[in-house]
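Q: I'm teaching a short session on how sequence maps to structure, and I want students to see two examples side by side rather than one. Could you give me a first protein with its sequence written out and its structure tokens following it? Keep the formatting plain so it prints cleanly on a handout.
A: Of course. Example one:
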Amino acid sequence: MNHRPPSVIRESAQRLGPVTAGLYGAILAGCASTSGCGGTPFESRRAEVLTAPAETAFTLENTVGDVRVVADPSATSVRMEVIRIGKGSTQQKAAEAVEELRFELIDTPGNEGVVVKTVQPKSTWAAGKQHAAEWVITAPPAPASS
């Protein structure tokens, strides 16, 4: 809470200039209307699993979450589990955010493997949405080199 007298707040706004002060006010009003500046208190999740032969080479591009890689000696294939996470200012927006998150599978030239890419929509934070993808990759350990 601001304990400065109203005259000090007015002086601060005047020093900022009318455009900057107006933007500042709009941001503060937006924070108040979306449950604080967190803005996305609702969450929706959906898990998906992709599998591939153990010898598959792949690259994972994920700029919207974490990736954990686990070497499992009992694994006979590569298991890629992804949890789509959508957050929103309402439950409906959180559910929409989950659906908007996409994954692309791209074959690389010359059989060098597959690129798995997480793709999120552009500029959805202003619409009260956030996207994340949490990956867990489980694969057999790499063979020991001699």
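Q: Perfect. Now a second example for contrast.
A: Example two:
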Amino acid sequence: MKDSLKKFYEYVGSEENLMYYVRINVRWNEEVFLKMKKVIREVMNDYENEDHYPKRFVMYFILEIPSVINMLSHWKTGSQEDMLPGETYTEEKFLSMIAERIKQLEELRKEFIQSLWHYGNPNE
């Protein structure tokens, strides 16, 4: 098993898993979000020339990321603790930040799906 996949399994089993954090704490945490992106990209990079991704990794994109997007889509308010460092909370800024993170999650899913297509594509 590749080190990146070990880190991914540790990540999904931890309280720093974005899905767990958002569902249990009902708060935003930028550090947790950035860690998720880093761990996922490391696995994608390590497996880019492989014939497949491990099932648990695929399920993260099929179930967990859409669930996080769904939960975030229903948030209507936050607090100063949810804001990026140096940002002052306003409802408008918070909702804009959440909309941007939803967009980034959707782009990450798209990137994953495209990585499936790019494997062995003779046109590339």
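Q: What should students look for in example two?
A: Point them to this: DSSP finds five helices and no strands in the chain. Also worth mentioning: The first helix runs from residue 3 to 12.
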